[in-house]
């Protein structure tokens, strides 16, 4: 198998990435939220300067696809006018902050996220790798433990704040006034020791011992993301995390949008949503059981049209399970192991059980029909 090209960074607005359908421009919403005007503005800009498709990433970001190089400057100016662009590309690459969508106005979560973003923008901020990230998961119970993050802010069973290094089952008790400084200190500890490691869990798995104080057991997450109405608004799903500009504009009319890592959006204060093209409101929809990257031809690394295959496989995935369909061994759409992973190759599809797209397959050179029989 030809190894896929690993570029070593995630796209941004100020550092976009070329793909098979043009530039991918990733917008990182501040505090994990888009105001209605911002969401509508992104839809307008994506229609004018991209191909009309928008992705929701597993890190709670918005990706404008198919941007033309001669339109990039106008797009960035438009995003800047809506306060959606960082001061420079280095700050943007550090500001990977995932926020629980279930915060209430006036709670600490919103302030923690803003203070963390400010700290990452300072000249002396730790020079963390581009894929290194933070999770502000400070609701009463955690909801982001299955999402990608390296340093986490959570609460223990008694409601106290704890600082968590991903890959370790205990946290360090911290105070509200020092939690961001403690997070920055832990990030600097990682930078000082990381060597070739780019993620916290890998560093700890390699034998690194955390500083003292990580003694409080973490709560275990039992939250399962599903579309439906919540006290804060309507949670809606998008097949493969992709939507058209008209869909985004329609949702923006209903309320502000809170980002999630689950290819879902929380539409603030929505109590009864109208029918919107491409929006999944049924928690039992089979498309929620599959995750698929863009695939060929929109991704130059893709070896198959992943999403059409994923749609055909979705009804055969057992309820409660998950199938990750990857166009190559990089596995960009789902970095963690999945119960079922299908990886496209030049000879067909590989099937991996309880693994990642790059893991050794249980079966090779399969057709979609073979996969259906196997699952």
Structure description:
The protein is 23% helix and 25% strand. The relative contact order is 0.12. The model has no long low-confidence stretch (mean pLDDT 95). Strands 3, 12, 13, 15, 16 and 17 form a 6-stranded antiparallel sheet that branches. It has a 6-stranded mixed sheet with strand order 6-7-8-9-10-11, covered by helices on one side. It has a 5-stranded antiparallel sheet with strand order 1-2-5-4-14. The chain has 9 helices and 22 strands.
Number of strands: 22
Q: Give the tally of structural domains.
A: 3
Q: What does the largest sheet look like?
A: 6 strands, antiparallel
* Ends distance: 24 Å
The structure class reads: alpha+beta
Rg over alpha carbons = 20 Å
Count of runs of 4 or more consecutive helical residues: 9
Residues in helix, %: 10-25%
Ranges with pLDDT <50 over ≥5 residues?
A: none
What characteristic shape results from the CA principal axes?
globular
In short:
With 375 residues, this protein is α+β, with helices and mostly antiparallel strands. Helix content is 23%, strand content 25%.
Which terms summarize this structure?
375 residues, alpha+beta, Sulfite Reductase Hemoprotein, domain 2, 3 domains, 23% helix, 25% strand
Summarize the SSE layout with pairings.
Elements: E1 17-19, E2 22-27, E3 33-34, H1 36-49, E4 53-56, E5 62-67, H2 72-81, H3 89-94, E6 97-99, H4 108-120, E7 134-136, E8 151-155, E9 161-165, E10 170-173, H5 179-193, H6 200-205, E11 216-217, E12 228-230, E13 233-238, E14 242-244, H7 245-252, E15 257-259, E16 264-268, E17 279-280, E18 290-292, H8 306-313, E19 323-326, E20 338-345, E21 348-355, E22 363-366, H9 368-374
Parallel strand pairs: 6-7, 7-8, 18-19, 19-20
Antiparallel strand pairs: 1-2, 2-5, 3-15, 4-5, 4-14, 8-9, 9-10, 10-11, 12-13, 13-16, 13-17, 15-16, 20-21, 21-22
């Amino acid at each position: 198998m030809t190894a896929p090209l690993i570029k070593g960074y995630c796209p941004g607005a100020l550092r976009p990435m070329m793909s098979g359908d043009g530039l991918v421009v990733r917008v990182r919403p501040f505090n994990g939220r888009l105001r209605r005007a911002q969401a509508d503005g992104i839809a307008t800009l994506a229609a004018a300067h991209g191909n009309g498709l928008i992705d929701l990433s597993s890190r709670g970001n918005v990706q404008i696809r198919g941007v033309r190089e001669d339109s990039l400057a106008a797009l960035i100016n438009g995003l800047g006018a809506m306060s959606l662009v960082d001061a420079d590309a280095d700050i943007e690459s550090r500001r990977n902050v995932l926020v629980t969508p279930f915060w209430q106005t006036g709670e600490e979560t919103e302030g923690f996220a803003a203070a963390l973003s400010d700290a990452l923008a300072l000249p002396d901020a730790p020079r963390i790798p581009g894929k290194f990230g933070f999770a502000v998961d400070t609701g009463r119970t955690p909801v982001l433990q299955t999402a990608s993050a390296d340093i986490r802010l959570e609460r223990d069973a008694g409601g106290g704040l704890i600082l968590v290094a991903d890959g370790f089952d205990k946290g360090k008790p911290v105070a509200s006034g020092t939690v961001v400084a403690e997070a920055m200190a832990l990030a600097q500890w990682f930078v000082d020791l990381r060597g070739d490691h780019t993620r916290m869990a890998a560093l700890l798995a390699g034998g690194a011992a955390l500083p003292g104080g990580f003694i409080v057991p973490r709560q275990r997450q039992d939250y399962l993301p599903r579309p439906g109405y919540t006290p804060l608004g309507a949670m809606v799903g998008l097949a493969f995390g992709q939507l058209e500009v008209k869909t985004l504009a329609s949702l923006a009319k209903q309320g502000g949008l809170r980002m999630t890592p689950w290819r879902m959006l929380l539409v603030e204060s929505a109590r009864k949503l109208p029918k919107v093209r491409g929006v999944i409101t049924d928690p039992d929809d089979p498309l929620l059981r599959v995750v698929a990257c863009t695939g060929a031809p929109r991704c130059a690394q893709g070896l198959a049209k992943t999403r059409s295959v994923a749609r055909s496989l979705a009804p055969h995935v057992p309820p409660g399970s998950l199938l990750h369909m990857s166009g190559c061994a990089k596995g960009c759409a789902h970095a963690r192991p999945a119960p079922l992973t299908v990886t496209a190759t030049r000879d067909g599809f590989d099937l991996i059980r309880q693994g990642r797209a790059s893991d050794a397959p249980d079966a090779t050179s399969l057709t979609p029909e073979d996969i259906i029989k196997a699952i």
